[in-house]
Batch of 3 targets.
Target 1
Amino acid sequence: MNERDYQLIEDYLNGSLGASETAEVEARLLQDTVFAEALAQQQDLLAVVDKKVEDNLRMLLAEEEVKLSNTVTSPTISISKWLSVAAAVLVLATASWFFSRKGSSPSGPTLFTENFTAYTNIIAPNRRGENDESRLSLAFLAYDNKQYKKAITDFEVLKNDTLKSELTFYIGVSYLAMDEIEKGIITLKDEAVDNKFAMEKQWYLALAYLKKNDIGAAKIALNNALRLSTDPVLGRKVSELLDEIKSIE
């Protein structure tokens, strides 16, 4: 994976590629598992952001509808009038959400919630139609199904045989997903394993420190992630998060 690959993924998900580049991406998705997993990971991250925006807008629109129902008493109000009001409310709600988010100073735990998503399983992806019942695949099947407690138990057994660094990383992420932040930090800081997923470990450590509202430690971890940068997409997220936490120091 290089810078162009990550840019292709970003443009593909944004719908800004031409026909030839779109065909290139779709062909690579069938042939290049690393490329496909990178795209899936970025897609997951975008889905989390989109869901949060959608939920906030739906809540604001519902509140405004209640206000309208309490103030508009005429039974003859036209449908087109109501729709125009609803559309205006949606526009205002969108603007309100973005301006309030931009102007506010989010807390560390809020930034954790907004940025945390379990790292994509790139070790033993469970492909549709396949029936792989190896111990490693079953452990990652539990992880993919958010059965993190079972996944941790299985990973702990397996890491004694193989993939020690990789499985230690996924154990740490699983602890964070279960809101067991201290265990997650201890696991991700384990120096007895090598530096595989080094940048990603620092990213998740930063999120864990944010959950504890330890802004100083979070900044150190984010700067370590930039120093170890191997993923331009994650690198941009690290830089953006560093900018955000400046407002809560």
Note: The CA atoms of residues 14 and 72 lie 40 Å apart.
Target 2
Amino acid sequence: MKTLVVVSHPKINDSQTQQFLLQGAKLQDVTWHHVEELGEIDVDKEQALLMDSDRIIFQFPLYWYAAPSGLKDWEDKVLTRNFVYGDGDDNLGDKEFGIVVNTGMPQKEFQRGGTENITLDEVMAPYHAIADRAKMQIMPTFVISQFQYQDDQEQMQTLIDYQRYLTQVYPDTLTNRQAWFEREFTDRLKYFNDTDCTECETLLNTFIQRREDVEQLKSTIGLIKQGEDE
């Protein structure tokens, strides 16, 4: 699966959150595409990049309930009517679409009656409308709230969840999570030798065995339910 991360941030080098996410993305086989660095936008090249991707992620900080102006400028030039839906071809119709947004306010405040008095789904509605018009499969929004206040353990969990969001098979089921972790563990194991991680292979084998046990249990429960229905 090819994942394209379309990033918008006017001062990305000064952003602790974006730099953290960039390092996490580097560990995955994804394309990190910062729109403010493009200068003059080559529309044909940008559209080709979108068409060559399987999963397209818009990533940005929330500025006054919207993305930075760089993403809007990129959208206006690249997402032309004919490209999105007007030429009769579903150029993006087989793609997945997701949003990674970081906020300065706690996520709990984005609700009716909260400090923001609006939900993040409502804020993201214009982007989802574009994806829907393009017949894309829309993923749940990945929200990072107040990253600067997270402790090390919380940031590590954010990193893992972010990496899964970029590359894990959708939807986010237990089976898909297990497959992702097994693949990641196997890939990381290649970088260790016996002196670096003597217990890594044992841990991986244990994880695989537990996953197989869960699958067997699910199968057994299915047979029991089928017997009850009969």
Note: The chain is about 50% helix and 15% strand.
Target 3
Amino acid sequence: MDIMKTLHVVGYKNSGKTTLITRWVRLLKKRGFSVAVLKHHGHGGQPAMPDSKTDTMQFLGSGADVSIVAGGGAVQLLLNEEPEFTELKLLATIGKPDFLLIEGYKNEQGEKIVLLRDAEDWESLSKLDSIQLIVGITETPTGMSQIKSRLNVEQLDSWLLDWVEKEDGDETI
């Protein structure tokens, strides 16, 4: 069995989730780690799909439940039905990464970074479990680790590297 660390980055639209995860993927890769990312498409509807004329979309359109295309060192997997979160995690970790960064899925179990745009965001997100870090200003002292702005990239990177060294957050895959 292999061990990986998992961390959710949660917040509402335009709070900086993708920007932060992209930065942290680069940071972890520079340090020699393997990283997987699982993202919840929370913008309504399906994520952008390949052109309808592609073989993959023709297969799905004809009723295939799964279509996989591989070549040139890359693989594309499309499913006609959205799996449960635990199954998505299994798919994301097929390569046995050192880290799984999850964008969204705020109500699923796991350690979380909460990105806030304003105090109103904190009103609903403060109820989440396993919050490890709050990024953004809250008007109420929380007793939790906090970085005042998502622009404090050095602090954010330092926090992540400290978290990497902790023994919490490990999952067996």
Note: The longest strand covers residues 3-11.
